[in-house]
Amino acid sequence: LGEAERRWLLTVATLPEGLRLVRFADRSEAHAAEKMRVDFVANASHELRTPLATILGFVETLRDDAAGGDPELRARFLGIMDGEAKRMQVLIDDLMSLSRIEAERFRPPTDPIDLCPVVEEVRAACDAVLAERGNSLKIDNRSHSTVVAGDHGQLTQLIRNLIVNAVKYGQEGAPITVSFEDAREMVRMTVTDRGEGIDPVHLPRLTERFYRVNAGRSRAQGGTGLGLAIVKHIVWRHRGRLDIRSTPGAGTSVHVLLPRPPAEPVS
Ligand code: ADP
């Protein structure tokens, strides 16, 4: 924190014999955490209120005889309301995922999970999206074992979020690669796309909740702005490391290091 963001707490106590105890406490961390909490509540409320306002607006319009009586208009408005309600549903699901992962942060998962089959499962589940954008997904396994100590559901979510981002922000028709490498007691998984890339100024903030480079574009593609925040919290819970590297105009690589189970031989 820079000096401008520092918050000092000054306490003065009078001791016996007229002595004064003056205590300066640096409250910057607590202040920053509190600010993040307040910003998060404000952002979440805003993100939920916007689709809700649209739905309520169309309810009003449909109550009005003219629009409500026209079957074509009715169908169109109901379609919009359906889309907005689904957007709220995705956002609420992501918010609940985040709070669940955070609540478990002191309990690192221990199940042996093989990441390669998880990527295959996600590839099958994302088949339609990949085909729609003409992307292929290649798995490049150079690791002696892709088994990590983990939580199957959360690792599936992590891999899905990274692949969906590679599709959304990648180039149409370009390949996406998921590669695995040995990194001593960890497995390194890297998801690489050949897309628009990210300007370096944004990189440090990408995993903040609701941070987006282009909010309109993210929303138009059904993004909640929580995908990478969820990824970060899953990595933290697994006691792993996350590193996002990008070259504007060339593409992005997201590196995730995850610990192997204790029984796995170290390479
Ligand atoms: P969103 O729902 O907006 O995709 P994320 O938390 O997943 O939210 O990502 C945050 C932002 O990071 C995105 O809005 C986008 O600007 C940027 N981003 C994420 N992944 C990529 C990528 N592979 N290539 C370029 N930009 C990306």
UniProtKB/TrEMBL annotation:
Which terms does the UniProt entry file under GO BP? cellular response to phosphate starvation
Q: Which reaction does it catalyse?
A: ATP + protein L-histidine = ADP + protein N-phospho-L-histidine
Q: Which residues of the full protein are shown?
A: 137 to 403 of 403
Its EC top class is transferase
Which superkingdom heads the taxonomic lineage of this protein's source?
A: Bacteria
Where's the Histidine kinase domain? 43-262
Q: List the source organism.
A: Sphingomonas parva
Q: Which GO terms describe its cellular component?
A: plasma membrane
Q: Which UniProt keywords apply?
A: Kinase, Membrane, Phosphoprotein, Transferase, Two-component regulatory system
What EC identifiers does the entry list? 2.7.13.3
- Descriptive protein name: histidine kinase
Q: Which GO terms describe its molecular function?
A: phosphoprotein phosphatase activity; phosphorelay sensor kinase activity
Q: What is the lineage of its organism?
A: Bacteria, Pseudomonadati, Pseudomonadota, Alphaproteobacteria, Sphingomonadales
